[in-house]
Amino acid sequence: DDGNIYNYNMNTSNNVTQQKHSYSQYSLHHPFIQEITRLNNVYQNFVLKNAGVEVIEARGTLTGPNSIQVHTTATGESSTLTAKNILIAVGGWPFKPDIPGIEHAITSNEIFYLEEQPKRMVVVGGGFIALEFATIMDGLGTD
Predict the structure, then answer these.
(1) Of 17, 48, 62, 84, which has fewest CB within 10 angstroms of its CB?
(2) How far apart are alpha carbons 109 and 40 in whole angstroms?
(3) For the segment 43-97, what is each residue's pLDDT rounded down to a tens digit?
(4) Can you tell me whether residue 72 is helix, strand or coil?
């Protein structure tokens, strides 16, 4: 029953109930972390690829209504691409400002890799990821 891996149970009435869980259940080898990795790979390697999407991880500059210059940091190469339609999906990445005490901060990228659950934490941000992690950590007992 895969539901048990992800902390959900299905009872005989087909009602789904969430199991009680603890922070210590989550580690780099826990199926939860493996599932996050699997889902990321499915999205990139099957959903986008099968739809004919070419993902280019690069810095881009619009140079005209149908052209964009891309600079791929990994290779150092630059090129100009043209297309009838250009979609710019900027994404986002957690940012830690240069302020005193920042060495004690983590981002949402590191939260699953903590060796132990924090007793107390402050979540900075009002976006859905910040709110999700505040709710998750509260549910696990972090103040």
Answers:
(1) 84
(2) 14
(3) 788 888 888 888 788 888 999 999 999 998 889 899 999 999 888 777 677 888 8
(4) coil
**DSSP structure class, residue 9:** E
Both tokens of residue 64?
A: 């005209």
pLDDT in tens, 89-118: 776 778 888 999 999 999 888 887 787 888
Closest by alpha carbon to 106, among 97, 96, 116?
96
List phi, psi (to 5°) of 112.
-75, -10
Whole-angstrom distance, CA of residue 117 vs CA of residue 23: 6
Contact 10, 3 (CB under 8 A): yes
Rg of the chain over Cα atoms, rounded to whole angstroms, equals 21
Q: Which residue has the tokens 């280019």?
A: 56
The single-letter code of the amino acid at 85 is: N
* Pair of tokens at residue 108: 């949402």
